[in-house]
Design a protein that fits this description.
Its main location: membrane. By secondary structure, this protein is mainly α. The chain has helices spanning 2-25, 27-36, 42-62, 66-84, 93-123. Helix 4 (66-84) packs antiparallel against helix 5.
Length: 137
């Protein structure tokens, strides 16, 4: 079962690695979007959130304090869903649909991150193929 959990950790982390790369390669456009949502200055927020995602995902994938990494991702996702993807504020139907999709994605990923946090914090010492045990266990 350890290999299944490892594959799941890798697949879960992949979306955050991709997101972090976007934060570092599309910083200017993401900063504009961030500022349009009321977060100023946008550039540091984009770079910091990209680094936060990258670190959290790396901890989960390699199994070094995976509980901390999962918690970091949940802490990123919950406010991001509400602040960045407030679909209820949109008037344009297409924009509303897009924001609602992103909101739901972030919310479901936050739920998965919290479940992983609980799993790793509770059973982390029993899960193989990790570099360390849990930080919060």
């Amino acid at each position: 079962m350890d290999i299944v959990i490892l594959i799941g950790r890798i697949l879960f982390g992949a979306i955050f690695f991709g997101g972090a790369i976007g934060h570092f390669t599309q910083t200017a456009s993401m900063a504009q979007y961030t500022e349009s949502k009321g977060i100023k200055p946008g550039r540091p927020a984009v770079l910091l959130s990209g680094a936060w995602m990258l670190i959290g995902a790396a901890l989960v994938v390699v199994g070094a304090w995976a509980d901390l990494g999962a918690l970091m991702l949940a802490v990123f996702l919950l406010p991001t869903a509400v602040i960045m993807h407030g679909f209820w504020k949109e008037q344009d139907p297409e924009a509303k649909t897009g924001e609602q999709l992103h909101f739901n994605k972030d919310l479901s990923l936050a739920g998965a991150a919290l479940a992983l946090f609980g799993l790793f914090a509770t059973f982390g010492d029993q899960i193989g193929l990790q570099l360390t045990g849990p930080l919060f266990g």
